[in-house]
Specification:
Elements (H helix, E strand, L loop, with lengths): L15 H4 L6 E6 L4 E8 L6 E9 L1 H21 L19
Antiparallel strand pairs: 1-2, 2-3
Length: 99
């Protein structure tokens, strides 16, 4: 029996509040054998305290797809706009080492 491919049209709803987005300047990633947890955090300059603005939980497969999609978009950005230059990473002993 031949399986027919269904052409599904995915409709995605974006709430108005969520569409505004949230600025973050730090992400922390943790994982176990079944999931990756990404906390997107805003830390104010000169303040050793941050607030998690969003937490996203991904399966390992989705996490890997997300990384590939993000890398593809970074590559496209750099082709169109120019290289993204990272400031030298400094370790702040009061906060630890973040990416």
């Amino acid at each position: 029996m031949e399986e027919k491919k269904k052409n599904l049209k995915l409709e995605i709803h974006l709430d108005e509040d969520l569409a505004q987005g949230a600025y973050v300047n730090l992400a922390m990633v943790n994982h176990n054998e079944t999931e990756f947890v990404v906390d997107f955090i805003f830390v104010q300059p000169q303040v050793a305290k941050g607030k998690v603005r969003s937490r996203v939980i991904l399966s390992p497969q989705h996490a890997k797809r997300f990384v590939a999609a993000l890398q593809e978009n970074i590559d496209n950005y750099e082709k169109n706009v120019g290289a993204i230059v990272l400031a030298s990473q400094q370790k702040d002993e009061t906060l630890g080492h973040y990416h």
